[in-house]
């Protein structure tokens, strides 16, 4: 009986017309997979320029808004220490000048002239250091905006990976730590 069912199924199957492939005039166009988005070569220069004009504006241009309070905190703190050290420097300087004229302030009566001179040098050095740190944070702000704009255009895909690998040694059962660099074509 199964032979007869198989023969009937083959006759029915061979009797129906089958169209496997149809010839079409469509042209196959391959998409470039390496170029996903347009790269703006002037974006890093623009971000650095914005940060040079107004600190933190380059970070806003790069859409890294969380870095703006860090920029303002760093520059503001160093500027605060500049003002504080400058104020103290002028206090000790004016007191020393007054002492040379013969006027003694009761606030600093416990200090002799040598200590007033050392206090002036101490606060002057800290004031100058605060200016250098403020300038360094300003330059760092510009460099950060430039580098961040460069790295924003960098192709970060899964084709290039750098992953840590942890394996157990089969002889002494101690962990082996290593790194693997993989590149997929």
Structure summary:
The protein has five helices and two strands. By secondary structure, it is mostly helical.
The total of beta strands comes to 2
Largest pleated sheet: 2 strands, antiparallel
Q: Order of strands in the sheet with the most strands?
A: 1-2
Radius of gyration: 37 Å
Order of helices and strands: HHHHHEE
Low-pLDDT segments, ≥5 res: none
How much β-strand is present in the residues? 5-15%
Q: Helix/strand/pairing class, anyone?
A: mainly alpha
The averaged pLDDT comes out at 84
**Shape type:** elongated
How would you portray this structure in words?
It is a single chain. The protein is 56% helix and 10% strand. With 185 residues, it is mainly alpha-helical. Strands 1-2 form a two-stranded antiparallel ribbon. Strand 1 and strand 2 (175-183) form a beta hairpin. Helix 2 (43-53) runs antiparallel to helix 5. The chain is elongated and about 130 Å long. The model has no long low-confidence stretch (mean pLDDT 84).
Key words describing this protein structure:
185 residues, mainly alpha, 5 helices, 56% helix
Q: How are the secondary structure elements laid out?
A:
Blueprint (H helix, E strand, L loop, with lengths): L1 H14 L27 H11 L3 H5 L6 H34 L11 H40 L7 E9 L6 E9 L2
Antiparallel strand pairs: 1-2
Helix pairs in contact: 2-5, 4-5
